[in-house]
Amino acid sequence: MKEIKLTEIGNINIGNAQDYENGTGVTVIISKEGMCAGIDIRGGGPASRETPLLNPLMQAEYIHALVLSGGSAYGLDAAGGVMEYLEERNIGFDTGIAKVPLVCQSCIFDLGYKNHKIRPDRKMGYDACVNSEKNELKEGSAGGGTGASVGKLYGMAQSQKSGLGIYAVQTGDLKVGAIVIVNAFGDVFDNKGNKIAGLTDKNGNFLDFKEEMYKSIQPKKQFTGNTTIGAIITNAGFGKSMLSKIASMGQNGLARRISPVHTMADGDSVYALSVGNISADINVTGTLACHVMEMAVERAVKTAL
User: Fold this and answer.
1) Does residue 260 surpass a pLDDT of 70?
2) How remote is the C-alpha of 282 from its chain's centroid?
3) Which of 9, 113, 144, 175 could anchor a disulfide with 23, C-beta 3.0 to 4.6 Å?
């Protein structure tokens, strides 16, 4: 197994657009030839678009773009710009009257990072597509990860910066990669169990998130400024149902590196995208999905700090 660039998987273009002054952004993954997709949602508060398309019972076999953005539900406006870009290039599902681009999207809640009045819009979505033509990968405070942070039990003042992480591997002909925006409620750990980002005290020293959370067991309004979103991308040829299983195994990568995770204060969503037709075992692919997601989570934090 060797590390590769995510774009080496093929049949994808990835682009970012961001507003650093106001602290938000968009990351787009485009497959002009179409990509089969599945999803696994474990958080209690997802903000998403066109998710029902990924149900194996739905007609659509492919989508043309996946958008990962900031802005909470307001950020869903960015998909309009992605559709405009694809329509201009005659990319979409042929309805017999017009080609309709199929675009899915998930958003993080980054409204508390800088300016909650400025969110990703159509123009930012379009700009991310234009930037995808360069296919230049960026991590950390870029694209949808611009306003990401972690460890927000006591609000932004005692949280730490996070961002966008990418990691991919190849074994034989099989290629599997992950792209993730880590905007978690909880703490983030490395593969040895060492905390690398998360909740701090007022002096910037690490606190144990779970121990602090356990101090109050009474029901209370959940802090909502969270959600980790990402995608597994592979050149293996799987349908929607098996991709949803791969996405669920990719979620295990979040569970190994983020604690607590998948709470009602999160909207954790992981997609799985097939952009090739390599024959591969689902157990191997899913296990690799977990591994690359773990590594991408760590990179999201380390490249943003």
Assistant:
1) yes
2) 21
3) 113
CB 163 within 8 A of CB 68: no
pLDDT tens figures, 109-149: 999 999 999 999 999 999 999 999 999 999 999 999 999 99
Cα-Cα-Cα-Cα dihedral sign, residues 183, 50, 43, 244: negative
- Region 147-155: mean pLDDT is 94
Tens of pLDDT, residue by residue over 41-56, are 998 889 999 999 999 9
pLDDT at 220 over 70: no
With CA atoms as reference, report the closest residue to 229 among 274, 184, 169. Answer: 184
CA distances from residue 7 to 22, 43, 103, 144, 248 in whole angstroms, order as listed: 29, 28, 19, 18, 22
Residue 271 has pLDDT above 90, yes or no: yes
DSSP letters, 128-176, are HHHHHTTT----BSSGGGTT-EE--TT-GGG-EE--EEEEEEEETTEEE
Which two structure tokens, joined as six digits, stand for 283? 């157990």
